[in-house]
Amino acid sequence: MRAWAQACLLFALLLLAPAAHALPIFSGPAGKAEAHLAAGLAQAAQAVPGGEVVTPTATAGSLDNLEKLLAQPGHALAVARADLARAAWLGTGRFQEPHKDLRAIAVLHTTYLAVLVRQDLKTLDQLQGKRVALAATATGDREALLVLLEHAGLARAAVQVQMSADPLAALHAGQVDAAFAVVAPEDASLTAALAAGDHWLSLPSTKELPESAWPWQVATVDRAQFQKLGDKQVVTLSVPQVLVGRAALPRLQVDDLVEAIWNQSDLLRTADPGLGSLQRATAAMPSPLPLHLGAADAYARGGPLDKPIDVRVTVWLIAISAIDLQKGTFTFDATLELRWLDPRMGPEDPRPFEVMNADEVEITPNGYEPHGPWHSLNWRMHGRARSHFDLHAYPFDAQRFELAFEHPLLQYGQLVFHCETRWHPEAKLTLDQRLGPNFSLHDWQLVAVRSEEVKSQYGPTEFFSRYNFVVDVRREVLRFAVADLAPLLLMVLMALAASLIPAEKLDAKLLLTVLALLCAVELQVNTAGHLPEVGYLTVVDWSYFAAYASIGIATLQVIAEYRAHAVGRDDLAARLRNWGALATIGAFVLPLAWMLIARKLSA
Q1: How many angstroms separate the CA atoms of 521 and 528, rounded?
Q2: How confident is the model at residue 535, as a pLDDT?
Q3: Quick one: DSSP state of residue 350?
Q4: What is the three-state SS of 150-172?
Q5: What domains does the chain contain, in order, with CATH numbers?
Q6: 101 CB neighbour count, 10 Å cutoff
């Protein structure tokens, strides 16, 4: 009685309000917690500076509320079940087309699916072939019944639906086997039925709902929601109510309305036990449809949306090709998926990323796909990206191919990118699983796939969240060994072969060493043609220097050996030949071995 008295008081306040054009709030059916809620929302709207006269309008239920809202040419509000509001926005179920201008203002109280059955019915699958009564005035209960049947694994035609003015009375009279309703806690009719000993059917607690059923969720109902349950607990489905409006509602007015609602939330909770779950902390996220900009302003200022939009990033890298060391670019083929819960960013907003290191890129949107409460957008990307190739260790170099993403407008305090692996610790997800099935790097060896979440700075005060998808690679040494090292070793061996020619054959010995030197120079010129111009020496340059030193030692050994032989010091000539050969080999092999060992240690 106290709740009804307060509701009547609120309506009286509306009648005494100064004249202005009306802002209807469609809510119903009458006699439910939603009627008290609508009265409280109306009073909240009156508290807005310069606010309009708000008229709570009793309707046949959520579906009727939404249809009346969509038929309004001007401004209006509606209290609707979250699943039906989402269906209207997506254009599914009863709605033949999407209504993308619908916006959420507040996610409100929780309602529960109540299935009252005969005492002999104990499980959900026993409803097969049974008569189920639905309230004729509750226009959205049929959709809720379909969710229940899908959860039970029953076909839509598995039950016989009968519309009734009073489903509980029909159950008591034996006209049906079950009565079905979506109710707020301590709903008067359901409380009376529980007090009379009616059986509330409990659902399997271990079975999860599919993503397509969201915002329905599996919930447990106990004494805290319905005192007449006593110590009994019932597993059922729950769905919140949501306050819905059009995107055209004035931003400042909605901002003020949100603040007014939560400033008097204690009064709303006191007005009816069914409104006890009203909380600002859960009023914005997850939301069944995008948030009105005015509501987003209020929630970003006073919570719960006072943190940056959290976006999880998933990259599938299908291929990397056309690696051009000269230009510092590579060609990539990839797919990007972004998921987020925050309703401040909608799927119709401008593309929420740029490829920051793209030289040129073609981006094709694959469209929007909801995954439960998550918004999900997907794009296919193909193009050429820039990379800094460090060639100090060439041909033993390790390189990184990365794709860098930033939001073009929202700064670090407004949006943050995070890698998907943060949300899958139990699955031990590794980024290696995000490479295409035919991914190949040709003469490169894959080392690791990783991500980087960094804060990039532009100027003294502008910071943006950047997500880097990184592929670490190392060059395969076999190609270098065959194409560069083997010919170079052959030139050193050619110079070394000069020591096998008799000491007096100076012309033949010098011919080999000089020819080896000229061939080594030609090889280096050819190798340099495949590398970009850099201002430092690479490992392959040092390899050629070692070869030059080796060939130079061989040349000096040839001359010194000849001079010793010419003066009759054949013993000295023999020692010079032996030590010269060792020095020739050592000058080339030892530096090369050190470079190989160093590469092995750094791998």
Answers
A1: 11
A2: 76
A3: S
A4: HHHCCCHHHCEEEEECCHHHHHH
A5: 2-302 (3.40.190.10), 309-475 (2.70.170.10), 478-602 (1.20.58.390)
A6: 13
Residue (of 372, 317, 364) closest to 340 by Cα position:
372
Return the percent helix, strand and coil in the chain, to nearest 5.
40, 30, 30
Phi and psi at residue 244, in whole multiples of 5°?
-120, 145
Question: pLDDT tens digit string along 439-470?
Answer: 888 778 888 888 899 999 998 889 999 999 99
Contact indicator for 475, 390 with CB cutoff of 8 Å: no
CA distances from 428 to 338, 423, 424 (A): 20, 10, 6
Spatial CA neighbour of 396 closest among 326, 470, 484: 484
Q: Can you name the residues that pair with 419 across neighbouring β-strands?
A: 313
Which residues does the chain have with pLDDT short of 50?
1-21, 426-427
- Straight-line distance from the first to the last Cα atom of the chain, in angstroms, rounded to the nearest whole number: 77
Q: What are phi and psi of 141, to 5 degrees?
A: -70, -25
User: Two tokens at 419?
Assistant: 């890698």
Measured distance CA(580)–CA(185) in Å, rounded: 98
Helix, strand, or coil here: 516? helix
Dihedrals φ, ψ of 490, to 5°? -60, -40
Single-letter amino acid code for the residue at 396: F
Q: What is the C-alpha to C-alpha distance for residues 56 and 26, in angstroms, rounded to an integer?
A: 6
Radius of gyration of the chain (CA): 38
DSSP string for 91-142: T-TT-SS--TTEEEEEEEEEEEEEEEE-TT--SGGGGTT-EEEEETT-TTHH
Question: Rounded to an integer, what distance in angstroms lies between the CA atom of residue 579 and that of residue 249?
Answer: 94
Strands of the sheet containing 415-419, edge to edge, are: 358-368, 375-386, 329-340, 309-324, 415-419
To 10 degrees, what angle do helices 570-602 and 486-497 make? 170
Give phi and psi for 475, each to the nearest 5. -70, 135
Strand order, beta sheet including 444-458:
354-355, 398-406, 462-475, 444-458
| Three-state secondary structure call for residue 286 | coil
Amino acid at 512: L
Q: Quote the DSSP letter at residue 275.
A: G
Q: CA distances (Å), 340 to each of 229, 352, 452, 454, 555, in order?
A: 38, 11, 19, 19, 71
- Residue 438, sorted as left (phi over 0), alpha (psi -120 to 50) or beta, turns out to be alpha
Amino acid identity of residue 355, one-letter, is V
φ, ψ for residue 293 (rounded to 5)?
-60, -35
